[in-house]
């Protein structure tokens, strides 16, 4: 399909799509995507990463029109998009398109929410743009995955910038040529390296994708041009960033095959490949009760990607703990915890966690599916217990219910903005199609908080 004008055809679809063209089931999944994103953005709003980012950008902010979700500060729309992308991803608790390991909502919802306070839009149009952005982002990711990811690119950042550009471009009414320019401008700003996992910079990727994607759309609106084949040209994004280019993944069955319907939501605040291990260890903890104190050793057998991504044996910080299958297993067994509270600097250095973590070994097994794990627990008396997890909770096979998404929302957001604001914000989030998105942003502001000057 390389002879097809991929960027042009995609731009035409984005520009021409109406909200009524999106099936109700897909729009409903879009609402779930938004609710989950909003809870994560509030949950991460008081993280030290957000504080550092605010200290860096506040002196350079333009007119402060847009809310940093879950905080009292406002920034110009571009910088607010950056901050909201950072906070919604910093806990590693956000949504996941499992086919590509993209976290779709961060780049897109962060840009749209910041824009909504400067360019009024209805909730219906907001949700339409959100679904479009997720669709574009995930289809472009499909076209280059897994080679692009295996080469070291963080695909949430690199594909997310296209989703943000498409979403913002749609909602501000770009024409086809402008949308081609926006996608080209997004392509040339695509970035994010997996080397940054376990540091503050990982969450910078979806933040920058939100900011850059919005900027791409606004530049195109102003008449700033780019190549009109930014995705598929010989020296365009797909050919430079990957040895795989499957353009049918981008253009095939547009409007009938919906990647946005395949989104999933994390029950645990860490790398997705660790989730089967946490799920299995929590099940074991429930089964053995007090015998957890008698564990002599634990052995994990998982796909090689699990150890490649999360093989940090001795994490030093909470952010590094999110990429340690050893820390995650120890927390799940000793504390039953896989929430953000399991991945703090304090918990990572607890003596009892370190003691069990040092008795956990992991073996790469290519025959094991990426989403599965085998766990063997050996007790001090020599007896063993084995657990196989085929698919973890939160997967497409075992999706989180709306009630579970609500519980996740409340448990993280109330720690930042309090119970009353959290409950009100959750109720508003489910009604996004009926409301002004700017009102939801305003409702996320805590009554009092420590502000960064």
Automatic annotation (TrEMBL):
Coiled coil: none annotated. Pfam families: MmgE_PrpD_C, MmgE_PrpD_N. Residues 268-429 form the MmgE/PrpD C-terminal domain. It comes from the Bacteria. Signal peptide: none annotated. Residues 9-248 form the MmgE/PrpD N-terminal domain. GO terms for molecular function: lyase activity. Belongs to the PrpD family. This is MmgE/PrpD family protein. It comes from Halovulum dunhuangense.
